[in-house]
Amino acid sequence: MKKINNNSANLQLGVQVSSDWRREKAIELDVYNQGMAKTELCDTWEEIGSCPYGEHCQFAHGITELRPVIRHPRYKTQACRMVLAGQICPYGHRCHFRHSLTE
């Protein structure tokens, strides 16, 4: 009787799962580490053309200062529970969940 060795198949499966898990964690880490500075335009700068915070402002003063945002692959893939319940979401456009069918 011949003994079947499943160790290599199990090892390959384990490596694949581990690799997928690491890739997802790496994306989450990139999303977390990027910070949100300069990812939105400064309201004050847009309204009056200047900002009291100057160079220290966390918001972009013009399109050229805007940084791209890395979003998690599941960003806005599910509906917001607040909106589904008929309530106003306190996060508004910054909410990580969909507020309409077109988002």
TrEMBL record:
Name used for this protein in its record: C3H1-type domain-containing protein
Keyword Repeat belongs to the record: yes
Keywords: Metal-binding, Repeat, Zinc, Zinc-finger
Organism expressing this protein natively: Gossypium barbadense
UniProt domain C3H1-type: residue ranges: 36-64, 74-102
GO molecular function, one term: mRNA binding
Origin: domain of life: Eukaryota
ZnF endpoints (C3H1-type): 36-64, 74-102
Alphabetical list of SMART domains matching this protein: ZnF_C3H1 (SM00356)
Coiled-coil annotated spans: none
